[in-house]
Design brief:
Layout (H helix, E strand, L loop, with lengths): L9 E6 L4 H12 L9 E5 L12 H20 L3 E5 L2 E3 L14 E3 L3 E2 L10 E2 L3 E4 L1 H14 L8 H4 L12 H11 L5 E3 L3 E3 L19 H14 L5
Parallel strand pairs: 1-2, 1-3, 5-9
Antiparallel strand pairs: 3-8, 4-10, 5-8, 6-7
Helix pairs in contact: 2-3
């Protein structure tokens, strides 16, 4: 098991129960690094919503609620938690990575608007994130409050042209808001993963998913793509 994983009391993997394909792939991904599901490593049945609510997409609503539920559970237990989405693919270097002492929030995979300054960037991606017990408690409170229409948006975001106060950001954007509102939170970044090629359950379907091709064939095409896609070193 990578030493990084041992820093957390619990590991949760967000997975829609009907996405058995992603569950199998994630189990294999973990097994490649000596991690088995059981004990403090478990799948979280992702929350689905029938409406978008205060979000742009229905999938964003469900993803937000899923991460919030995991963080609330960690807060109630007084535990730290490492959260993976079920399309997380680990990269070389994860075995050697040591989490800096005192880290509150950890990003193990992300895309930053300014790659040289992720601390101050807009961040896309929440597929590999760690929270200390204190950060989990604070984040759960913030994310819950953010669902209230009267809760004020993060000032920097609200100052942008075209900002709509009725629309809440997806979970990755909401966590950027949270970190800006809590400067005492110590955040660390490391590119230790990427998202596996897979049919999305959150955003718009890709071109290949709209083609009249049997799902198993599409899945096989994606597996080939993942195998031939070079892994960063």
């Amino acid at each position: 098991m990578p030493p990084l994983f041992s820093n957390y009391d619990r590991i949760r993997i967000v997975n829609l129960p009907e996405r058995a394909d992603r569950r199998r792939e994630m189990e294999q991904e973990l097994a490649n690094f000596g991690v088995t599901v059981g004990g403090n490593v478990s799948f979280f049945p992702a929350i689905k919503r029938d409406e978008s609510g205060p979000f742009l997409r229905v999938g964003s609503h469900g993803a937000y609620r899923s991460h919030l539920a995991i963080l609330k559970d960690a807060a109630q237990r007084g535990e730290s938690v490492l959260i993976f989405q079920d399309d997380c693919e680990f990269l070389p270097g994860i075995d050697a990575f040591e989490l800096p002492e005192g880290t509150d929030i950890f990003y193990g995979g992300y895309s930053a608007s300014d790659p040289d300054n992720p601390q101050d960037s807009e961040i896309i991606g929440a597929h590999f994130m760690g929270f200390s017990a204190d950060a989990a408690q604070k984040a759960a409170l913030y994310l819950e409050a953010l669902l209230d229409p009267a809760f004020p948006p993060e000032p920097r975001a609200a100052s942008k042209t075209g900002f709509n106060p009725a629309i809440r950001p997806p979970i990755d954007g909401a966590l950027v808001w949270f970190r800006r509102m809590h400067p005492e939170i110590r955040t660390e970044f490391a590119l230790l993963s990427r998202q596996r090629a897979s049919r999305t359950d959150i955003g718009d379907r890709s071109f290949i998913d709209r083609l009249p091709i049997p799902a198993p064939l599409v899945a096989g095409m994606r597996r080939i793509k993942s195998l031939i896609r070079p892994r960063p070193t």
